Amino acid sequence: MQPDFLIDSRHKSFPLTAQPLRASGIAARGWNVLADDLPYPLAVIRQSALAHNVRWMQDYAERHHVAFAPHGKTTMSPQLFDLQLKGGAWGLTFATVHQLSVGLEAGVRRAIIANQVMAPADLDGLDALLSRHDGLRVWFLVDSLAQLRCIEEWAQAHGSRRVFDVLLEVGVPGQRTGVRTLEEAVALAQAAHVSPAVRLGGIECYEGLIAQCSTEHDAPAVAELVRRVIEIAKACDAQGWLPSDKPILSAGGSGVFDLVMPLLQGANLARPFQGVLRSGCYVTHDHGTYRRLLKQVEQREGLHDSLQPALEVWAMVQSVPEPGLALLTCGRRDISHDMEMPSAQRWAPRGAVSPQAAPAGWKINALNDQHAYLRFDPAGESPAVGDRVALGIAHPCTTFDKWPWIPVVDDAWNLIGAIETRF
Predict the structure, then answer these.
(1) Average pLDDT for the chain
(2) Residue pLDDT, tens place only, 169-194
(3) Distance (Å, rounded) from C-alpha 187 to C-alpha 184?
(4) 146 φ, ψ (degrees, to nearest 5)
(5) Rounded CA gap, 315 and 337, in Å?
(6) What letter would DSSP give residue 307?
(7) CB atoms < 10 A from the CB of 285, how many?
(8) pLDDT at 63
(9) Where are the domains of the chain?
(10) Model-level pTM?
(11) Of the residues 49, 54, 219, 420, which has the fewest C-beta atoms closer than 10 A?
(12) What integer pLDDT is reported at residue 1 of this predicted model?
């Protein structure tokens, strides 16, 4: 995984007594998580699961005959962007112009900014990136005439001839961005078609916020969104407002991506469209929210051996102040908690060089900035001071952003590489 980068004691969980090194040289140090060679807490990515996930999701997209542009905001890691692109990704997705600039370091040449761009400084930046990188194609989202006016006013103020590629975003009532009605979509598409500042490249939506981890709810709810997007695509195409060569249809979070396949495959459309799937959390998956959502996907599609959790945070038991309670050296500064609490996955008693499964009754029920509260039955297996516990996550996005670097480990917990993040 490239590009290489320098790691030193300014990086959280790098040993203060160790000499700086480049990521490419980390395997030569011979460090091992369970040898306590690095301080805790320590986020790690299991290489075997990471490689499996990259292959699996790319294969999934190819089996369904759609392009894959994984969402880079999940990891913001040039090394992982490089891995995804070399694995066959059509492009990458980002949420901001700044994130796009990081992706360019990894060599991306097709990108979707799955968000509205309108601030003058962001338009300045995107214009500069497009000028600097020959052959770069970037599409961002538009969802209102007011946003379109902001873009046109920027162009007029700068005397710019730049024509930005855009996708019309279709939203869900009561939720995030995107036009709500066919009438709004048609009015915006018509305005974009005649605008000197933008070029309408297709239609976009995001189905992830619909999901409730129940096929009975999710399938019809997403199907309704798909129906609306196809209706809008047909209306825009009938007016000649979409490109003559394969307009884009894009959707796909990490939870119910199978349910938008009829849209991405251009169901009921008179000519070919380019379907683009944008899942992001798949790359390391998780032990919670997305794992449960994936079980629903597996049942709907008859899948086996799908995504594997690759990211976890190791912590040490620092105190057992009373029966049934242990405090771990991991807190809100180190691990995601926005969707649900972390979960105890592995346990390595003090001195052990290989972990075992954590007892089923061990539960994290609270976090402080630097502490995790592990509750357990004192009549059963109990953690002791100095033990190590691996915590699984829910929602990888908000674990990645807490770590400027993350070691990559093999199945024996040897450090064999590292990735950096650029939030």
Answers:
(1) 97
(2) 999 999 999 999 999 999 999 999 99
(3) 5
(4) -65, -40
(5) 16
(6) -
(7) 25
(8) 97
(9) 6-47+307-420, 109-279
(10) 0.96
(11) 219
(12) 63
Angle (CA) 406 251 122, round 5°: 65
Distances (CA, A) of 173 to 169, 176, 184, 249: 13, 8, 13, 20
Token code pair at residue 332: 């809100």
Q: Is the peptide bond before 41 cis (omega within 30 degrees of 0)?
A: yes
Give me the pLDDT at residue 368, please.
98
> What CATH number belongs to 6-47+307-420?
2.40.37.20
Tally Cβ neighbours within 10 Å of residue 92. Answer: 28
Which H, E and C letters describe 334-386, residue by residue? CCCCCCCCCEEEEEECCCCCCCEECCCCCEEEEECCCCEEEECCCCCCCCCCC
- Give the relative orientation of helices 145-158 and 182-194 as an angle to the nearest 10 degrees: 10
Kindly state which CATH superfamily the domain 109-279 is placed in.
Alanine racemase (3.20.20.10)
Q: Quick one: which of 222, 231, 233 has its CA closest to 272? A: 233
For residue 63, the SS3 value is: helix
Contact 110, 69 (CB under 8 A): yes
Contact 69, 92 (CB under 8 A): yes
Q: How many helices (H) and strands (E) does the chain have?
A: 10, 20
Task: Give dist(CA 422, CA 77) in Å, integer.
Answer: 6
| Interatomic CA distance for residues 407 and 397, integer angstroms | 17
pLDDT band for 2, please (50, 70, 90 cuts).
low
Write the pLDDT tens digit of every residue in 371-423.
999 999 999 999 999 999 999 999 999 999 999 999 999 999 999 999 999 99
**How many Cα atoms are found within 13 Å in the side-chain-facing hemisphere of 395?**
13
* 64 — pLDDT class (breaks 50, 70, 90): very high
What DSSP designation does 288 have?
A: S
